[in-house]
Write a structure and sequence with these properties.
This protein is α/β, with parallel strands linked by helices. The chain folds into two domains: 7-289, 3-Layer(aba) Sandwich (Rossmann fold), CATH 3.40.50; 302-519, Nucleotidyltransferase, domain 5 (2-Layer Sandwich), CATH 3.30.420. The protein has helices at 7-10, 23-31, 33-41, 49-63, 78-94, 114-130, 132-137, 192-197, 201-216, 235-239, 270-279, 281-289, 302-307, 368-381, 394-406, 432-437, 460-470, 477-490, 505-508, and strands at 67-71, 107-111, 153-154, 167-171, 181-187, 217-227, 245-249, 309-310, 324-330, 341-349, 355-364, 388-391, 413-415, 443-444. Helix 15 links the parallel strand 12 (388-391) and strand 13. Helix 2 (23-31) packs across helix 3, helix 5 (78-94) packs across helix 6 (114-130) and helix 14 (368-381) packs across helix 15. The longest helix is centred in the N-terminal third of the chain and has 17 residues, at 78-94.
Length: 524
């Protein structure tokens, strides 16, 4: 694995060149990109053959006057190597006329967000201004502080008084983009949001790329597009079909069911890859095999969900008498509280076994004590009072029970062990679809809260429906929280003599009649 270089190796912490490399080594770093990576960052040449193939692919495309595209698995060094180290090396070479490259380069980076692009630009800026090894290889690559330096752009000293930055980066579609470019890097311009969650954004991304590439690129400019597959109709998928481009795609499996071959063995060995595959097979195929999502994939047929929508009912407005309720949780316990979401999904069920969301809590950065207070509030306020609160595993169950006891209260909490049943067609996530197909759900969508009509709406119900529609390509907090309680409550309909589970007596006491729901009716 290309190890993280220490401060002494990189000079990022004002380190010294210790020991200084001979002149011949510095000259090799100037002439050959892999040697530059080894000298500056400590990345061993040939340690990952795939990385060397990227270099060769780009060189071949430039020689043939083609734009270069690379699709490789997630977290395999694309940004660090091709959006950070390679532009840095190109800029350095442009300051040494004897190397024969174009001088006074103007490079541009487009990423999926402004924040991501700025982070990469700032990394390159720090390398140039603070890394002694970079200065040793390219002594004439010096910052020009007379330019308008921002977190998105920096300037190097040049002879032509060029007004455009040496390297600048923005999110796709940023209004700040302007000027001309000798080279453009597209780094993960397609992402979950603009390819999966908001399908209308796919064409917008392509339109922006076309407008900016045509408008900004000089006739001799090169373009390198690096990323991972998302959807068969996203911008990169369409660029792959265009003339004038040449793409190379990397997968850890050549075809479904094939032997898994690690592409970066020292970082992603077989053990790590198999663990990821077991966690979510389809998302693994997208992220590590670059098999994009198609229009007809997902755990639900969306037409089945649409049949259950009631535009005459507001979200959570009850359509029937709820005979039993429960709450499923995706707790933010051992995660980064500032970025992870806390989910509490309250679900009601009628006497005939129909389901309706009663309340959804979906908040980011919630302290654990506040999560337990939310559980108590739901337990005390929902009518009827929840018969069970489902959490994902025993560790979370114990933590929630203990925290609630500190408040001087108690609620019935059960642990849900996901395991292999997650993908079971009868009790796992795929069991959502037959339930929707049978019309067992009622979802109030008054005001356009159906997950599609209001694409900018971030209310809990719209977020849940978007996750459900695009799962498992989308985020999973809401779908999982709902599944925990849905899976538990649907077992209540099982009666003696059926193939299902007979409900424990203490749970059945939540009903006026713990017998077969076929005799009770909805009461609406």
């Amino acid at each position: 694995m290309p190890r993280e270089a220490t401060g002494a190796e990189t000079g990022l912490a004002a380190g010294r060149i210790d020991p200084p490399l001979p002149l011949v080594e510095r000259e090799m770093a100037r002439r050959f990109f892999p040697h530059y990576c080894k000298y500056v960052f400590g990345w061993e040449i040939g340690e990952c053959p795939m990385h060397l193939e990227w270099d060769e692919h780009i060189a071949e495309c430039r020689a043939a006057d083609l734009y270069a595209g690379i699709q490789a698995p997630r977290n395999h060094g694309k940004t660090q190597r091709m959006a950070r180290a390679w532009p840095e090396w190109m800029l350095g070479r442009s300051t040494m006329p004897r190397l024969g490259d174009r001088q006074n380069l103007r490079l541009k980076l487009f990423a999926n967000t402004d924040k991501f692009a700025a982070r990469t630009i700032q990394q390159v800026e720090r390398d140039i201004t603070s890394n002694d090894r970079v200065r040793a290889v390219f002594p004439d690559m010096r910052p020009d502080r007379t330019g308008d330096w921002t977190k998105h752009a920096f300037y190097l000293r040049r002879e032509d008084n060029e007004r455009d930055p040496s390297y600048e980066g923005y999110g796709i579609g940023s209004t700040a983009t302007s000027g001309r470019a000798d080279g453009v890097i597209l780094d993960d311009v397609c992402d979950l949001s603009n390819s999966i969650l908001h399908p209308a954004e796919r064409e917008k991304v392509l339109t922006v790329l076309d407008a900016d590439m045509i408008h900004l690129c000089e006739p001799w400019a090169w373009i390198v597009d690096i990323g991972t597959a998302w959807h068969e109709l996203d911008a990169n998928a369409k660029l792959m079909k265009r003339a004038g481009w040449k793409w190379t795609v990397y997968r850890v499996q050549k075809h479904p069911g094939a032997k898994m071959v690690p592409l970066w063995p020292s970082k992603w060995g077989l053990k790590e890859l198999r663990r990821r595959q077991l966690n979510n097979p389809r998302e693994f195929d997208r992220g590590f095999n670059n098999w994009a999502w198609t229009e007809d994939e997902g755990i639900v047929d969306w037409t089945h969900v649409e049949k259950c929508m009631r535009p005459d009912l507001a979200p959570f407005e009850r359509a029937f008498q709820v005979r039993v309720s429960g709450v499923g949780y995706d707790l933010a316990l051992s995660k980064d509280s500032a970025s992870s979401f806390f989910v509490a999904f309250a679900l009601g069920m009628s006497g005939a076994g129909r389901f309706q969301p009663l309340e959804i809590v979906h908040k980011q950065g919630v302290p654990f004590r506040q999560q337990s207070k939310t559980a108590l509030r739901l337990h005390n306020d929902l009518v009827p009072r929840p018969s069970v609160h489902m959490v994902e595993n025993n560790g979370y169950q114990d933590a929630l029970v203990q925290q609630i006891r500190l408040e001087g209260e108690s609620i019935p909490v059960e642990a849900f062990t996901t395991g292999k049943q997650k993908w079971d067609p009868y009790v796992g996530l795929p069991s959502y679809d037959p339930s929707f197909a049978a019309g067992e759900w009622v979802i109030g969508t008054k005001g356009g809260h159906d997950g599609d009509t209001l694409p900018e709406c971030e209310c809990p119900q719209c977020c849940w429906l978007r996750e459900l529609k695009h799962f498992p390509a989308a985020t999973t907090d809401l779908v999982m929280g709902c599944w925990f309680i849905f899976n538990r409550m649907r077992r209540l309909r099982a009666v003696p003599g059926s193939t299902g589970e007979t409900e424990p007596a203490e749970f059945g006491q939540a009903f006026e009649d713990p017998g077969s729901f076929a005799d009770i009716g909805d009461g609406d």
